[in-house]
Structures are given as structure tokens and as C-alpha cells.
Amino acid sequence: MSWWNRFRSSPGKSAQPEFNQPAMRLGEHLVTDVHSHIVPGVDDGAENLEQSLKMIERLVGLGYQRAVLTSHIHSDIYPNSKHTLTAPFLKLQGAVAERWPGFRIHLAAEYFLDSHFQDCIAANDLLWFPALDENGRAIRCVLFEFGFHEPPINHQQVLFDLQMAGYTPVLAHAERYPYWHRQFNEFESLQDRGVWITVNGASLAGAYGPETYQVAKALIEKGMVKMICSDAHAERHMDSLQAIGKSALVQQWLQSGEPMNPKVNFEANHF
Ligand SMILES: [Fe+2]
What we know:
This protein is α/β, with parallel strands linked by helices and about 270 residues long. It has helices at about 5, 25-30, 50-60, 80-100, 115-120, 155-165, 185-190, 200-205, 210-220, 235-245, 250-255; strands spanning about 30-35, 65-75, 105-110, 130, 140-145, 170, 195-200, 225-230. Strands 1, 2, 3, 4, 5, 6, 7 and 8 form an 8-stranded mixed beta sheet that branches. The chain is globular and about 45 Å long. The model is unreliable at about 1-15 (pLDDT under 50). Fe (ii) ion binds next to loops.
């Protein structure tokens, strides 16, 4: 019997998220937030250092100790690279160290699965973050996303190439691809191939509507979700993290032993 069936108490009553449990500080359990747009001025996230610091302050307040900052890399819209991201990241890192000496940030990226991503894989020029897998083995994770409107083409080959290059693919916000909302076999196929599936806190808070919430919930109930992430572009996403601390669904997931967020630790010398 799955952990969910053991915990499940009220099947069927869940078209909308419910926040009726005693408040839990998500960061005390997840430790590391793994997907966010907090590097200032490089994508559609934080516009300046002040906004970045406000977002970090919220993570600290929620009990997080670390954050992986995953700026968009999308050849047409956000032509970022290590070169464009490093200077603003280091500026932020210095400011964070001054204000919250115990809080750590790490630079990675959210790659759009396009030909530029394929070029980065071929050149082994990737921004990644370290983690431990379920067996305690050190792995290198790369966060990627699909387009929201059309299903990906050739993604299985690209993800295979990424794995052959030595990386674990981590799918951003699996619940936000409407063309797969009735095709869970696509998620199962990715999972079977070793892709880690993540969902956004805002989806679990209902911010993207009931259908997206239902898909995120179903992924959790099926035991497929490795991480809940902020995908924070602004402070409103921190409000979502705060809200879902009162969700029975999220609290049960936190207690299930399934969250891999704490296994992302760039302070430990994994390599
Ligand atoms: Fe994102």
C-alpha cells in the first residue's frame, strides 16, 4: 500500500486546495528551495537587488537554509549563460552573506528544452546543482522546462543525451503543461527514464487554477513528486509557500520521506 493510501482520510473532496491544518514552516522540512528567479535583472524574476533580498528574506522567514537560483536560459527570450549570470549572482551572494550569514545560495539555471540546450549539453557547458539520490549517490542535477503551449519534440533524445553526459534531468513544474494534463503516461515515461519530477508551490496553492492544482495533487498522490519548489519570480510566490504550509496534502507529502529538496546540498563536498 502506498504511503498516500495509508495517510489518506478524505478521498474525493479536493477540487480546490484547502489550508485547514496547523501552520507548518515549509523550509524547516525542505531546507533547500530548488527553483527560483532571484538573481537580479536577468530574466522575468527579481528586477533589482532590493527585490532579490526581499525574496531571500521570505525564504529565511519560512525556515529555508539554502536556495538554488535557476535563472531562465532560453535562446530567444533570455539568452543567459554562465557569463551573463555570474556577476549579478556574485553581487547578490555578497549581499546575502552580509545579512543572513547562515543562508547559502547556488547558481544554476532553468533551461528551456530547445536547440541551444542541446548545444550546451554537447559542449558540456551547463549550470547544475549537486544532490544525493535515493541511494545516497552524489548526482549532478539540471533543471529544464518545456513550452507551455505545445508538446516538446525530440525531448526523449535530448534528455538521454543529458543523462549520457552525466546529469540527472529535473523537470520544472510538471503540472503546468496543459497538453499532458490527461496523459499521465508521459510523466510515468519520464520518471521511468530517471527524470525527477517537481511541482510548484503556487500550483498547490491554487494560483494557476483548479485544473493545474488537480494535476499537481495527482502527481503527489501517485508518489511521483521529488520536490516542491517556489519557482519564485516575486514575493507573491513566497505567499504560496506560506499558504501550503497549512495544506494536509503537502504536510502528508513532507512526512512521507519522498521530498528530495533536503538532499540538495551545495555546501557538502559531493564531488
Ligand atoms: Fe522557473
